Amino acid sequence: MPRLSQPRVSADHLDHTRNHPLIGVDHRRRALLQGAGLALAALALGAPRTLRGAMPTPAPVNHDKRSRLILLGTAGGPTPKVDRSAPANAIIIGDAIYVIDCGDGVARQMVKAGLDLGHIRDVFITHQHSDHNADYGNLLLLAWATDLHTRVNTWGPPPLKRMTELFLELNEYDIHIRETDEGRPPLAPLIVPHEITRAGLVMRDDNVKVTAALVQHPPVTPAFAYRFDCPDRSIVFSGDTRPSDNLVELAHGADILVHEVIDLKAIDAVVKDEAMATRLRAHLEAAHTPMSEVGKIAARAGVKTLVLNHFVPGTAHIPDAVWYDAVKAHFKGRVIVGHDLMEL
Ligand SMILES: [Zn+2]
Ligand SMILES: [Zn+2]
């Protein structure tokens, strides 16, 4: 099993607090403390380590096949942020880890989440923007320098194979040193990149079936959303996209939709230079999904839970309630404002 170094907070507690409009901006901190206290109490009593709060428990499943979803980084855009790490997520089933996007710092975020880097089985890149791939190679190199010695399949749009080759070449010196000095297995044969150019079935193994849909994120093409059909539930990642019918179809009836979101008004306030603001806004409107649209998409897809992710701007000055209220107005299901290291 992946190692859990610390109790984590179930998102159920956080969502529960958001159902109370009178709870102020400090609600998340209090919910975290409350959740951590409950988690510690539960651990002391020998309860399962992932708390599900007071929500109805789902149908029993083989414990080893129960999926965990961890949001590793929740900020959109390539610039490093203080409060949110770059886009990355993990699904854990049994002792296998599936990583979705590899933004800056993904390896460290995984360690902070208590995950064993040696258990990475597959890596999925939604699209080749640096906020999603900057640490693609680094994740595998650092996992290998930790304890990875099994094959990792990587999946994503071209030029994934060339990127993998060039990364190995870039780090040839260090890799060679560790192979000879530390006796590590050769790294190159462990990484098997697969380029995806069309929608459809991506891979299937003993845990999960992964399906891709083409989404609209100009000028980057192809850009994909991924659906993970796990033994106990289905989880869909929108990747970066403007409102997309293909995504709605992919996410139809899913248990969880992890969807990107932008606040256009906040962007206007942040970017002072007018020419730059006009250009940036044109890109964002063409390539991303405004907060006013995300709830409608979740409603059309008929998902049970909507998790907001890839926040743009990813800075702390926008309270959770702003994101939540904008989305909740259009979606009757459960809405969760994502934060780094949140587990669902
Ligand atoms: Zn992005
Ligand atoms: Zn992007």
Name the average pLDDT.
Answer: 85
CATH level-two architecture of the largest domain: 4-Layer Sandwich
In terms of DSSP E residues, the strand content is 15-25%
Estimated radius of gyration = 20 Å
Q: Can you tell me the residue ranges where pLDDT is under 50 for at least 5 consecutive residues?
A: 1-56
Figure out the total of helices. Answer: 12
CATH superfamily of the largest domain: Ribonuclease Z/Hydroxyacylglutathione hydrolase-like
Ligands present = zinc ion
Shape: globular
Oligomer: single chain
Spatial ordering of strands, largest sheet: 6-5-4-3-2-1-14
CATH fold node name of the largest domain: Metallo-beta-lactamase, Chain A
Give the distance, in angstroms, between the N- and C-terminal Cα atoms.
Answer: 17 Å
CATH class assignment of the largest domain: Alpha Beta
The counted number of beta strands is 14
Structure, explained:
It is a single chain. With 344 residues, the chain is of the alpha/beta class. It folds into two domains: 1-54, no CATH class; 65-343, Metallo-beta-lactamase, Chain A (4-Layer Sandwich). 34% of the residues lie in helices and 24% in strands. The chain contains twelve helices and 14 strands. Helix 1 (11-18) packs antiparallel against helix 2 and helix 11 crosses helix 12. The longest helix has 18 residues, at 27-44. The model is unreliable at 1-56 (pLDDT under 50). It binds zinc ion (2 copies). Residues 127, 129, 217, 220, 240 line the site of one zinc ion.
Brief rundown of the structure:
This protein is α/β, with parallel strands linked by helices and 344 residues long.
